Amino acid sequence: MMPSVFPLETGHEPVRTGVVGLGYWGPNLIRNLNELEASELRWICDLDEGRLQPMAKRYPAVRSTTAYDDLLSDPELEAVAIATPVSTHYPLALAALEAGKHVFIEKPLAASTSEARELLRVADERGLTLMPGHTFLYSPPVNMIRDLIRSGELGDIYFISMSRVNLGLHQSDVSVAWDLGPHDFSILRYWLEETPSHLSAMSRSCVFPDIPDVAFINLEYARGVIAHVELSWLAPSKLRRTTVVGSNKMVVYDDVSTEPVRVFDSGVMLRDPQSFGEFQLSYRTGEIVSPAVQPAEPLQVEMADFCVAIRTGTAPRSSAELGLAVVRMIEAVDASLSSSGERIPLGDEAAIAA
């Protein structure tokens, strides 16, 4: 079983952290970094005084500022967590790395493969932790299913179908693929431990012109697995449902259910033919098991992993390399959409960038 917590060893001091961006997700980072024993929250930062002042009142012991340079020039600050629009990820993260700060950055890692690669290069040269915020990698149900896949209990994985839809939240600066896609792409990369060999996509911009709010994405993997990802901001109800079909068993993962993981002992077998031209299929419908999932707040576990990675020099579960792979997959979606759903090879970065 993958570890659910990342305790900081005795003798390590808490990591002195700051949070940049107090919009939708930033307050969650602040709360967790403030409560985590492995972290000492020192700074909060946002350009909008209307966002900054309420947070400053809630956390009076934490310094607040509208100037990002205040954080970068603080010699005692060790790490920054960035929760700002995607277009700002690269310049903010690069400035922090160049100032000698470790960086946690909300998904996706950057707005392009070239930007992501440059961040990896700078972090590696300076010996700093660079970690994208793929929070689902710290979700107990996601890790339970990864353990089932790795143990071989499901058999050979045939295909995976994923739906992540709801009514809103529409974004004005990125497509639904850039907004919701990183969740499912990171889970697939984590479960299957490989990047797709090919990807194709189709979409439609229903509300804002030129900003796709629904997308259907097909992924192919070198070992034969196929996956389908449905993303939408325009659906009558919230759905977070994944089906994993293996040769031995099948799994349904429903993130909004009280029973998030259900394992189906079901399948089909092709019996040896008894005569020329004869075949028989044997269907198996066994028991359905809903294993107990230990509760944990994924974001808290993720922040703990970030602090441990800084103190120990180890790679976090949500590694920069995984973040780069996710950005490459999203760029491949854009490349496919711009060429009327063409099947894009991910091994060819030139094709993705074209």
Topology readout:
Layout: E1 15-20, H1 26-35, E2 39-45, H2 49-58, E3 63-65, H3 68-72, E4 79-82, H4 86-98, E5 102-106, H5 113-126, E6 130-133, H6 140-151, E7 157-165, H7 176-192, E8 198-204, E9 214-220, E10 226-232, E11 239-246, E12 250-254, E13 261-271, E14 280-289, H8 298-312, H9 320-338, E15 344-345, H10 349-353
Parallel strand pairs: 1-2, 1-4, 2-3, 4-5, 5-6, 7-10
Antiparallel strand pairs: 7-11, 8-9, 8-15, 9-10, 11-12, 12-13, 13-14
Keywords:
globular; 10 helices; 27% strand; 9-stranded mixed beta sheet; 354 residues; single chain; alpha/beta
What features would you describe in this structure?
By secondary structure, the protein is an alpha/beta fold. Helix content is 34%, strand content 27%. It contains ten helices and 15 strands. It has helices at 26-35, 49-58, 68-72, 86-98, 113-126, 140-151, 176-192, 298-312, 320-338, 349-353; strands at 15-20, 39-45, 63-65, 79-82, 102-106, 130-133, 157-165, 198-204, 214-220, 226-232, 239-246, 250-254, 261-271, 280-289, 344-345. The strands form two sheets. It has a nine-stranded mixed beta sheet. Helix 4 runs parallel beside helix 5 (113-126) and helix 6 (140-151) packs across helix 7 (176-192).
TL;DR of this structure?
With about 350 residues, this protein is of the alpha/beta class. The chain is built from 10 helices and 15 strands.
